[in-house]
Specification:
Two copies of one chain form a homodimer.
Chain A (H helix, E strand, L loop, with lengths): L8 H16 L4 H10 L5 H8 L3 H15 L14 H21 L4 H11 L6 H14 L2 H12 L5 E4 L15 E5 L4 E5 L7 E2 L10 E10 L2 E11 L12 E5 L12 E5 L2 E4 L9 E2 L5 E2 L4 H38 L18 H36 L6 H29 L11 H8 L9 H20 L14 H4 L14 H29 L15 H5 L2 H29 L5 H21 L1 H5 L6 H18 L3 H6 L5 H4 L10 H9 L13 H9 L6
Parallel strand pairs in A: 1-5, 2-5
Antiparallel strand pairs in A: 2-3, 3-9, 4-8, 5-6, 7-8, 10-11
Amino acid sequence: MSMSQRVDSRTRDLVDKSTRQILKASISPQDDIIAERSRATFDALQMCYALNGGKDKIQRRAQLVEALKRTSWGNKERRHFMTREEEYVEALRASFGIWEKMKQEKMSLEDGVTMRSLVDFPGGLELHIGMFIPSILSQGTPEQQQHWLPLCYDLSIIGTYAQTELGHGTFVRGLETTATYDKTTQEFVLHSPTLTSTKWWPGGLGKTATHAVVMARLFIDGKDYGPHAFVVQVRSLQDHLPLPGICVGDIGPKFGYGGVDNGYLAMDHLRISRESMLMRYSKVLPDGTYVPPPPSNAKASYATMVYVRADIVKNAGSVLAKAVTIATRYAAVRRQTAPSPGQPETQVLDYQNTSHTLLPLVAAAYAVHFMGETIMGMYKRFDKDRERGEFSSLPELHALSSGCKALCTWITADGIESCRRTCGGHGYSKLPGLPTLFQNYVQNVTWEGDNNVLCLQTARYLLKALVGVQRGQQATGSASYLNHAAAELHAKSAVQGASGWNAHALQSAMRHCATRLAASATAMLQSASRSAAGASSRAAGGLVFEGPAWNNSTVAMIKLTRAHCMAELHSNMLSSITALHSSGKVGGRELAVLQQLASLFALTHIEAHMGDYLEDGYFTGAQAASIRQRQNALLLELRPNAVALVDAFGIEDYVLNSALGRQDGDVYTALLDMAQGSPLNSSQEGPAWHTVLKPVMVKHSKM
Amino acid sequence: MSMSQRVDSRTRDLVDKSTRQILKASISPQDDIIAERSRATFDALQMCYALNGGKDKIQRRAQLVEALKRTSWGNKERRHFMTREEEYVEALRASFGIWEKMKQEKMSLEDGVTMRSLVDFPGGLELHIGMFIPSILSQGTPEQQQHWLPLCYDLSIIGTYAQTELGHGTFVRGLETTATYDKTTQEFVLHSPTLTSTKWWPGGLGKTATHAVVMARLFIDGKDYGPHAFVVQVRSLQDHLPLPGICVGDIGPKFGYGGVDNGYLAMDHLRISRESMLMRYSKVLPDGTYVPPPPSNAKASYATMVYVRADIVKNAGSVLAKAVTIATRYAAVRRQTAPSPGQPETQVLDYQNTSHTLLPLVAAAYAVHFMGETIMGMYKRFDKDRERGEFSSLPELHALSSGCKALCTWITADGIESCRRTCGGHGYSKLPGLPTLFQNYVQNVTWEGDNNVLCLQTARYLLKALVGVQRGQQATGSASYLNHAAAELHAKSAVQGASGWNAHALQSAMRHCATRLAASATAMLQSASRSAAGASSRAAGGLVFEGPAWNNSTVAMIKLTRAHCMAELHSNMLSSITALHSSGKVGGRELAVLQQLASLFALTHIEAHMGDYLEDGYFTGAQAASIRQRQNALLLELRPNAVALVDAFGIEDYVLNSALGRQDGDVYTALLDMAQGSPLNSSQEGPAWHTVLKPVMVKHSKM
């Protein structure tokens, strides 16, 4: 930026007098953020190590960041300015770059995963790594694995996973793509019989993948055996053109995820060999005999879903941590409105409505982080158990991971946008990174199980548990508080005064609320089920989990799951921070702040759903008011630690790539510097001058 | 899309057997939407005329749509696929196209406004039309108007309005750009003394505008007279290059609004003539004497803000109408999950959680629409009054428009995203239009007064009104319900059973709630004000509206404004629909549906904030439950009218430009057709094959 011109000294003197008056009022954002850090009551670095698995991991990340910055594909300077095509090409280059770097430097898989998260540029290889290879590993026979996996690992082929169709997502049994077995040739004929059967959404399918695991309804001798998995080659390995009988392409722009070429696929009577069906479990013999999968297979595929959902919960915590890091640092250095003339302007974080938005989201980022760790740990224990045929923890794990996937992705998606809005005008710019974070994140509420549908699954689990308890059975795991339902339904909170809202009182309140919502949802569904004509097929304890009775109760069911999972997030945070302290990973000062955060998390949830606590008289009006008092007091108690709490997430400037989230607080310089990269600035007169503006504006040029 | 290959008849027969089984289950979306329309209990076309100002207007819109479609700049086929530069250039072309068409065909201003909303492509001329010309009209002297306006009207110059700076948005008094008067030359020296004084955000400033109305702090003889408006030329009219002393450019990509070149501007000791200051009100005489504006000027600038906010409310209604049109039509044709094998799958709109999201948003779109009409009408009456110096309705209008701007933009911004999520996976595609609608809309919660700040202004008005009432004065206008505050605070709802929730009962409940929140916010601020040391400067009725006492009360204040404006939206909708019916614009069947919508709007708000109605005992727990019962019953009652209710908004397919929102329901064909336009599909092998994929994938090419 240059506008140099000669200015005479008289003009300079004249203006300097005005300038001095302006400068009196200004405080630099860098000074502000230094002051913020000095106010912290705990050791942010120790907290950072505790949250991130130790000092070694943080140091390794730092090394990798330095290495990545220096690569052409890891450099992020142009990331905010790319067209969709550039995003697609550059994201692939980045994926390939990581792949090559791992090979050349013989790096660990963990380093590879870390690099992917640091570069943070999803592209056409996502489903090759995340779904195609895992599908072959889990559903392929040893021969199939030997055939396909080496080709996958050296990128001779690139795969994707094609399940979703134009007309079917959630309801997998409704898929319309057919795979008809032809005994005479021992082939399957893959076909897309309707427009709505067109495969739609698979990542990498548009322009990258050469192969796909295609889910299709298996037909043998006119009989429908339901969805099965087939490996289908869609593009030539020589010229990358679609093979005959294949119609494939990109589905067009999306809210975010521009680097990924989500694709469509229609097949026209496409013949593939019998060996193309993944036959580790179900099989089709040459003569057309169908061999069904062993019963444990259903459980195994549940296990995969659980893993994916646990991973989404873990990811939700880290994405929300990014958003609150950006917004909190900016709110600490942004000053707006002087209380009276001559006074310094107020830091935006000192307005109650800002801290009332941001600090609970910081607390939520911690709560979701701990839940991610816990669910992933549960999954790993289960994974060991199942090697010896032990599946007993699966229903609990499935219910918890489904509900928490829904709740945590809602918290994060909505949280990013709330963070963005606290940044005021500058939050609307892409340079701070929050719009892109939101655009790339929000599909998490839909994919891998639509959140509402997942909530219904968890609610069903809870209702069955409660009906079991009512019949004298014992509820276990996260539902075990339902064992006390009978007494709980008549309980009242005994808390007196704002100071009474300790961790135990908050936890009791949240569990009471979940118990009551479970009881009323059960009663509602029992009543609706009775009146539903002829509904008995899947009745359990007088409950019909389908049809109009169920469809007209879903609001209460979703509400129940939210309340249940919120209580779980809170109690899990309490036990996680206690464990961190007992193991010496954090000291007493860190524990104290974490306990405040856990309380703020619970209080904020309760405050936002106060009606649920008042409706049955569990809370009095005075207790409701004291919840707000305690919450407001906590906001002030936590205020000095705000910046240190987001520092403790340890997210590098390289990862944030944000003009407002930078560690040093120099936000305005960053905005101005980054804006220079805007493609519109590549010429001084701009891209419309010669073609649009000049012909109209300069009249004599027309004469 | 073509994948033609020869298929032998045996294969065809084999596959046809599978296909027939698939086809049994499918229902076409076109049939679904026809069936939906036939279920309506009211006349959607009559409703459409009533909402849109009559049959003539709808017919004129249709004519304009046909004309626009045929122009190169009004055609929307490529709209979803543009790069930022293309968006900028094409949006300008569209603006110029409308301008020229109006001139050539001697069209009315109203036609021009209509065309702008139909083309719906904000670009670099927004602030020329919306701010530069109006500023000169309202703040320029007759001579200045004669000089500038003809140049504006024939686009010899293009202007913008530069107020916001990197460091200052909301707090206008804090602007840092200086305009120092130089008596000796009778010039102002415009200067950007700090990094944070860089003008930032003005639309069109980046690469389009040649001139800007610049807000700068006026200094004369070292004295600061605060912000004043100056016309500054920033670019040459010959070659469009920035003039000496000017640094100007594009601020980079934003969440949305890619067609607009929001810009930055820094000035280095830039001399402009004394006549460049807009001097209709304040003046600087040649000798440096400052002539302050007459007192009515402040009121006039309030009036401009009121107009802008009223316009935003009106716009909020039409944007939300678009979102619910898309989502409701799609939810009516999307089917997912068969209740049991062999049965048709359920329309997504028949899941309670979907209708519980969508139908209240349909209701909100109606409520916001009516509020937009009302506020605009109030503004127009005020505008007539002020010509004769009558400003008495301004405080009420200012408070109402501020709070409603905040509330209605929140409803719409959050509503678009909720609509998007009900569309499941396809909602994430840009082709249905909801992502872009959200991206282009959300800055409305921030600009023209940040919503939180506006809520505080309305809250201050309400608190002053309540303190006035407590002192025996009469509250007027929208605050007049506060006259009954003393009695209201002890009131209980007398409603029995779900059927008791008629319009009057709902309105009483909402006003009771707002009264109680006003009383508790007043008490809270009075108490905080007492303890705030030395705070007395602006105390009114023991209330200090600034400093820590105020900053630590903002959550309660914002909550109060929301409750107040919700009650206003509801009561305004009731009176608006009564008026429509009395004037014969709608019949009894239409009125009945509108009344149901008004009730649903109120019930949904109350249900979401139930704690506020239970805390003081106004509701019992049983009444809370009956609110939900009534709400659920209404969802079922309104369900058959869902599609007709969005049809009645009368939004053309051309305007929606949405694969899922189309009138004919043919959503899957549209998705597939529109996807063909994706730039990634311009070659079969895709843009990464030769440069990225082939070198790695095809091994022999490396040997």
